[in-house]
Design a protein that fits this description.
single chain; about 375 residues; alpha/beta; Rossmann fold; 2 domains; seven-stranded mixed β-sheet; five-stranded parallel β-sheet; 14 helices; about 15% strand
Length: about 375
């Protein structure tokens, strides 16, 4: 377990536990969210010592994960994690923050080994059961096969395991309001929604007529389902002059899309600089999500920061909050495709660019969210 310390003007000593790669210098959703949590807690007055809980690479547990997977089990060496936590604790540490759902099982072990005086706070990126439900549902719909009994049983074990963990977690911060209610249903003592912030800087927008853009993991079932539903609707349109430029991985999925849909241009994985350059030519960014997948979409925050026109869904904006501005919403694939085609014309999409600007400017910042966390934990 590796560690480092971040400093704050105020001194509220705390530990920040995170999984392998979640603080790596890449622009994935997990990394963006983890770093935002870290920055927000520091702004809230916590002096954080960060501890990495490394993946358990012992052969025995790797075999178990492969042959007999169990929700939340065999991911890390619990005894080693507790030993590392003990070595990092001082009497002044009253909070331990767990970053991501994978670390939920540590809550009980920490309480039983280190005492119940330490507050365990889960920094949720979303519940595993929520995404697994949509994974098996979306995969079943796309393949036109039913959900298997094994998948149903595995979902049930997810929920039972999460329920058993809840009593040992003192507070859960969630990225979306709907997961606050699910956490309460699972037995959370307290749960609070904290909205996303918008950090990305605006693009020098130079849109090309007919050009749309999409960014996301192409093997993530909720993403894949939404994208395919819209692609199939766009394919039906007569005289379609749209070019949809897709950025994401894995490569095999992207290549398959470009081979199946003649209006798709697959760009692969781009660097942040390359993505900004290409996105500056999009008439609109499309974000088709038609289910309440876990957490919220970090890519939407990026697009809002770019201040380019966006077409999305009610489910796509879950977890975001703003005071001014409107974003084009379509909650079924046919309507979404119609809106996407309409806003592929820069003359029309320009009319909503100012609305996106209002959303960006009226969204909460790190100081606002830090205040929510600080006030919430002070009342706990």
């Amino acid at each position: 377990m590796q560690e480092k310390t971040t400093k704050s003007e105020e001194s509220i000593p705390a530990l920040f536990l995170y999984c392998d790669r979640s603080l790596d210098d890449v622009s994935g959703g997990v990394q963006l969210c983890s770093k935002e949590y870290l920055e927000t807690l520091t702004e809230a007055g916590f002096s954080l010592k960060t501890l990495k809980v490394e993946n358990d690479r012992r052969v025995s547990n790797r075999v178990k994960r492969k042959l007999k997977p169990e929700p939340y089990n065999y991911n890390f060496d619990t005894d080693k994690a507790i030993a590392d936590i003990k070595n990092s604790l001082t009497e002044s540490v009253k909070y331990i923050f767990l970053n991501q759902y994978a670390l939920r099982p540590l809550a009980r072990t920490i309480k039983e080994n280190l005492g119940y005086g330490i507050k365990i706070v889960l920094l949720s990126h979303g519940l595993a059961s929520v995404d697994y439900l949509h994974e098996i549902r979306a995969t079943s719909n796309l393949s036109q096969k039913g959900v298997s009994n094994a998948e149903v049983n595995y979902l049930g074990r997810h929920i039972v395991e999460e329920t058993s963990q809840s009593p040992y977690i003192d507070h859960v911060f969630c990225l979306a309001p709907f997961e606050v209610e699910i956490e309460k249903w699972l037995g959370a003592k307290k749960a609070t929604h904290i909205p996303r912030t918008i950090k990305e800087s605006p693009l020098n927008w130079r849109p090309k007529k007919g050009r749309l853009g999409y960014v996301g993991r192409l093997d993530h079932s909720p993403n894949k389902e939404g994208l395919l539903l819209v692609l199939n609707e766009l394919k039906k349109m007569k005289g379609n002059t749209i070019e949809l430029r897709i950025v994401g991985s894995p490569i095999e999925e992207g290549q398959k899309l470009s081979e199946t849909y003649e209006f798709v241009t697959y760009l692969g994985e781009l660097t942040d600089e390359e993505l900004r350059e290409d996105a500056s030519t999009w008439s609109a960014f499309i974000h088709p999500v038609f289910c309440y997948a876990m957490g919220c979409s970090a890519k939407l925050a990026v697009a809002l920061g770019w201040e380019i026109p966006i077409v999305t869904t009610t489910m796509g904006v879950r977890g975001y909050a703003w005071k001014e501005g409107n974003i084009p919403i379509a909650d079924d694939a046919e309507h979404f495709a119609d809106l996407a085609a309409e806003y592929s014309d820069p003359v029309i999409s320009t009319t909503i660019k100012e609305e996106i600007n209002k959303i960006r400017k009226s969204s909460p910042n790190i100081v606002n969210v830090a205040e929510i966390i600080k006030n919430t934990l002070q009342k706990a």
